[in-house]
Amino acid sequence: MKVKTILVSQPEPKIENSPYFDLQKKQKVKIDFRPFIHVEGVASKEIRLQKVDLNNYSAIILTSRNAVDHFFRVAEEMRFKVPDALKYFCQSEAVAFYLQKYVVYRKRKIYVGKRTFNELTPLIKKYKDERFLLPSTDKLKPEVPSILNELGINWKRATFYKTVISDLSDLADVSYDILVFFSPSGIDSLFHNFPDFKQNDTRIAVFGNTTIKAVESRGLRVDISAPTPETPSMTMALEKYIEKANARKR
Fold first, then answer.
1. C-beta of residue 176 within 8 angstroms of C-beta of residue 7
2. Fewer Cβ atoms within 10 A, N terminus or C terminus of the chain?
3. pLDDT computed for residue 250 by the predictor
4. Rounded CA gap, 139 and 180, in Å?
5. Dihedral sign of CA atoms 129, 135, 138, 139 in order
6. Phi/psi of residue 165, each to 5°?
7. Alpha-carbon distance 54 to 216, whole Å?
8. Alpha-helical regions (H) of the chain
9. pLDDT of amino acid 248
10. For the chain, what is the domain count?
11. Per-residue 3-state assignment (H helix, E strand, C coil) for 215-241
């Protein structure tokens, strides 16, 4: 079936040269963006109940931009002056670059991984005598604590923000040819909002193996997946599928 409409379960990109906008123009399809989940900060009093005293840590492990935002939010709420000597261990360059929103980059001790959490571990191991804090979401991947425990370092996890299901009730009577998901939480949100959802002719595009498993566990069909060697990004996977699907109707 021909593809005319796509719903991406993420916020609309803020950059003008997003590949989604290029895809929309090139393939003449309509792409809407709607977050199926959103992040809410945990109040500082709740974090105190987790027995977290920011004075006790000499290094922070940051896995996402959300972690950056909520660490500095909590520090401000607790009236904690972030020391210049604090070490920042960032999972990726994107996270490290985002730190510039809060600190003077060249004056801080920032250590950057390549992309995955596992690639950050050699840097953490190099500074194993530090006292590490991991400000995280309530939906933290189980491999992260396992990896940190294996390193034998002094570390503590604290939930600084939570992943919350968004209200999608206004989409009840709207249909799309393709739904795009990036996490199991997005699939949970779909069924929380629409318990009787039936896939029928709707194509489902997913990013990552855990999301594929979440889709299949709900009895749904995965039609488009990324990353693959041929299509490392979601937009590339969508374009490849759309070109085939729409060509049949020409």
1. yes
2. C
3. 47
4. 20
5. negative
6. -70, 130
7. 41
8. 19-27, 44-49, 65-77, 93-98, 121-126, 143-151, 184-193, 209-217, 234-247
9. 62
10. 2
11. HHHCCCCCCEEECCCCCCCHHHHHHHH
Task: Give the largest CA-CA distance in the chain.
Answer: 65
Q: Which domain-ending residue is among 117, 139, 163? A: 163
d(CA 6, CA 33): 9
For residue 15, the model assigns a pLDDT of 86
**Rounded Cα distance, 82 and 41, in Å:** 19
Predicted confidence (pLDDT) per residue in 185-240, tens digit: 999 999 999 999 999 999 999 999 999 999 999 999 999 999 999 999 999 999 99
Q: Is residue 10 within 8 Å of 35, Cβ to Cβ?
A: yes
Q: Which two tokens mark 152?
A: 């034998």
Residue that is last in its domain, among 128, 163, 198: 163
Polymer length of the chain: 250
Which contiguous run of DSSP H or E holds residue 100?
none
Task: Locate 113 and state its tokens.
Answer: 């991984």
**Structural domain of residue 184, as residue ranges?**
5-36+166-247
Contact 52, 161 (CB under 8 A): no
Tell which residue, 101, 50, 38, has the closest CA to residue 78. 50
- Write the CATH number for 191: 3.40.50.10090
| Residues of the chain where predicted confidence (pLDDT) is lower than 50 | 249-250
pTM, full prediction: 0.78
SS3 call for 170: helix
Q: Locate 215 and state its tokens.
A: 């889709």
